[in-house]
Structures are given as structure tokens and as C-alpha cells.
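Below is how a single chain appears once it has passed through the pipeline. First comes the sequence as given, then the structure the pipeline wrote out for it. We keep one example in the README because the format questions we get most often are answered faster by looking than by reading.
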Amino acid sequence: MSHKIKFNLSNKKNKKQLEDQPNEKISISIGGSIVNTNRTDKLEKQKLIPKKNLTKAVLLDNNLYKQFKSNQFSKIDLHGLTVDLAHQKLIQYFKTNYLKKNLFHIIVTGLGNKAEGGEFFTGKIRKQFPFWLDTEKFQFMVKSYSPCKIQHGGLGAFYVKLKFKE
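Resulting structure:
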């Protein structure tokens, strides 16, 4: 995801301050530090910035369900677990299946309890699941995911495809 930052140059004071600064480009990483792009080669050599990002973001693939029609899959149910316990159990489950090269999985998170007059889909595990997939631990093993079709658990479950370990 790329974020853009705009500077308002309509004010002459701001424009003058920006003109006085050296002509260097900067890149800003959300959650990281500001790195001058002219100095990135030096930082790569010092191993402060990795040359290559080894993990890719997990894709939201709305056509993933088609692969579950013709392939065998495993299922894990996280109902009744705390968020922390579900997170740990899921990491262990993915590690085991990644090493065994089992690619297709259904993760049942549940929808949570609906409070009276409250909104649907209040499940804590269900809400956290996409955020977990954005972490490096999961990005290393998970290729793509999507919400399940009704025959496999509906919106209370997710299809997950793991990466193939070479």
C-alpha cells in the first residue's frame, strides 16, 4: 500500500523554506523511519536496510474458492479460544502444514456473538485474522486468503492458501 504526502506551497513562507533546503528526495515508511533515498545504498551496505524484502504481502483472492473444489483441504476451528491462544494455535498450525506442503486450508473463526441492536460480525478472532496475515510470521507462509462461501462456513471462515516450500 502506497501513501502520499502533499505539501501546500501556496503560502510564500512555506515555499521559501522548501526552496532553501537541498534538492534531495526522501521516502517515508509508515511504521518505520525516514530514509534519505540518496543514502540508501550506503545503508544497504551497512545492513541497516535489507536489500530485498523476503516476504510478500498476503493477497486477498476472491477466486480462491475455485481451487478448493478440486483440491483436498484441511480445516481448523478457532471457536471458543481467546484471541492470543487462537493466534498462537494458528501460527503452529501454519508452520506444521507449511513444512508438510499442505497448501489449502479453511480457518473457522466464527462470527462472534451479536449484541442486541449491535452490529453483525463482532467476533474478535474474525476481526484480528486479516491483521495477523499482515505480520511477517504469516507472510512467510501464507500466499492468499478470502472469506468462505456458505458451504464451507460463510463469513465466519476463511479460505487460506499457503506458499509452497521449495
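The chain has two domains: 1-52, 59-162.

See the next section for the split statistics.
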